[in-house]
Design brief:
alpha+beta; 8 strands
Length: 367
């Protein structure tokens, strides 16, 4: 571990971060409000998702569900449709559960204390800290992947940042810095107003990691902390953070079946509790990655064409998935089918997994 900074040095870190953020912060729509609900929704969406993807989703969500009470009373089908394409759908289900708790216990408002925020379904230490600091200017720290990387490099924190010892040290540093930001000095923000340093400090750390202190090829020459950075001084930037190697990649293959009767397609809803729970998809089965003979694996479906209608490649965590869609028939009465029958227009209105949405797009000419 590198030499730890003194409080005076950390004060300089905070001052430079706030100044840099005031001059370089991106003008994102959720930064134009102090509404804790709007900030909370943005933080949930930004988990595992890039800013450029989230912006349109957030703006649409806020038009349809502008406050806690609207989310609490919304139909799950509506919230899933609004979230369609963002992935990690447990986030939206937890968000609605949390909104209902807010209505029941907090007057329809996001809690004003860290402990109450942390008690909400799906709200962890990072999200609670981010919302409380940005919306309420509380000195609550944040530690996401971007902040881990910045602090690991600047302070020379060795070891896996998700391991117990290094993670505790990083949380301690984040807490110290946001505490310093709450000490009374004033730095103008990028909109020309003053105050609210706690939220800006946390946003500055996240922004620096996103724009400057990149995982590969960081832009050290323009970093406001370059003269204080342990990793840069020791010419060891590539060594921090010392993340453990990612798990082994697995390759999986699925066959989906496009069954059509009387202008309607067979579809099914994924069960609760699993990946993509409650979303809709075409019936499908997992098959051997390298096998060529699907006939034995697709019962009770009977493939009517050997050539795939389309192939979709996608990833879920460490899994690299090939999804192939085939036209098929299903012997027996329609009422006994494992799913429901829907027109293409009806399928368009359902929340589908991204991969199966691409299959639906391949059927664009079928009514």
């Amino acid at each position: 571990m590198g030499t730890l900074k003194t409080s005076k040095q950390n004060l300089r870190v905070v001052e430079r971060l706030l100044k840099w953020f005031g001059e370089n912060a991106r003008d994102l729509p959720w930064r134009r409000t102090r509404d804790p609900y709007a900030i909370w929704i943005s933080e949930i969406m930004l988990q595992q998702t890039q800013v450029k993807t989230v912006t349109a989703y957030w703006e649409r969500w806020m038009r349809v569900l502008p406050d806690v009470r609207a989310l609490a009373r919304a139909r799950p089908a509506q919230t899933h449709k609004l979230w369609e394409g963002l992935g990690y759908y447990a986030r939206v289900r937890n968000a609605q559960a949390a909104a209902r708790v807010m209505v029941e216990k907090h007057g329809g408002q996001f809690p004003r204390t860290f402990a109450e925020a942390l008690a909400l379904p799906g709200v962890g230490r990072y999200t609670a800290g981010a919302v409380c600091s940005i919306a309420y200017n509380l000195p609550t720290p944040v530690l996401d992947g971007n902040v881990m990387r910045v602090l690991s490099r600047v302070f020379g924190v060795s070891g896996d940042p998700r391991g117990k010892e290094a993670n505790a040290r990083l949380w301690g540093l984040a807490e110290e810095l946001v505490g310093i930001s709450d000490c009374g000095f004033r730095i103008a923000d990028f909109r020309g107003t003053q105050g609210r340093n706690c939220g800006w400090l946390n946003e500055a750390l996240m922004e620096l990691g996103a724009l400057v202190c990149a995982p590969r090829e960081p832009h050290c020459a323009v970093c406001p902390l370059r003269r204080m950075c342990f990793a840069r001084r020791e010419d060891r930037v590539a060594e921090f953070p010392a993340l453990k190697p990612a798990g082994k990649i697995s390759r999986r293959r699925f066959a989906a079946f496009i069954v059509k009767r009387n202008g309607r397609f067979l579809a099914r809803q994924r069960p609760a509790g699993g990946v993509n729970a409650h979303l809709w998809e075409f019936p499908n089965v997992e098959v051997a990655p390298g096998g060529n003979n699907l006939a034995a694996a697709v019962a009770p479906f009977v493939m009517t064409e050997r050539k795939a209608l389309c192939r979709v490649r996608h990833s879920i965590t460490r899994h690299r998935i090939l999804l192939e869609a085939y036209r098929a028939e299903l012997p027996g009465p329609a009422g006994a089918a494992p799913g429901v029958w829907r027109t293409r227009a009806q399928l368009e209105r359902l929340a589908m997994t991204s991969a199966h949405r691409k299959i639906l797009a391949a059927l664009r000419d079928e009514l």
